[in-house]
Design a protein that fits this description.
Elements (H helix, E strand, L loop, with lengths): L2 H25 L3 H9 L9 H13 L1 H8 L12 H16 L5 H15 L4 H16 L1 H6 L4
Length: 149
Amino acid sequence: MSKMATTGARTRARELLVQALYQKQIAGHDSAELLRQFREQTAYKRIDQNFFDAALAAICATQNDIEQAIKPLVDRPIEQLDPVEMAILLIGVFELQSRPDVPFRVVINEGVNLAKRFGAIDGHKYINACLDLAAKSLRGDEFQAQGRG
């Protein structure tokens, strides 16, 4: 698969992740149920399935830890975050913590684009600010090397 095809498949996987994590928050489904449901969708055939499966399982398994990392990034209790914003932050912080192969700029850009697509008006600005703070604290060396510190 070409790099562009992989990039598009990864972006589509993140879009499906937002939907799965939103559903988890609203309906309380566990990762096994979410995987079963999303694997049945036509959209699942067009995504980076390995990334989706691994990210969903890891985010669900470590959600409390990821939420602890999100708390200092936000200006309100995380219980008051919009479920879409929460899903996007879970994905972004997970990638910053656990996927050093994904540059922090890509994580931020993908989060902003997800917020533009699924979130409230101007929600992307909030996501950008939160993920920028997360990148500074979780990827300090990379952040400094890019001249952003």
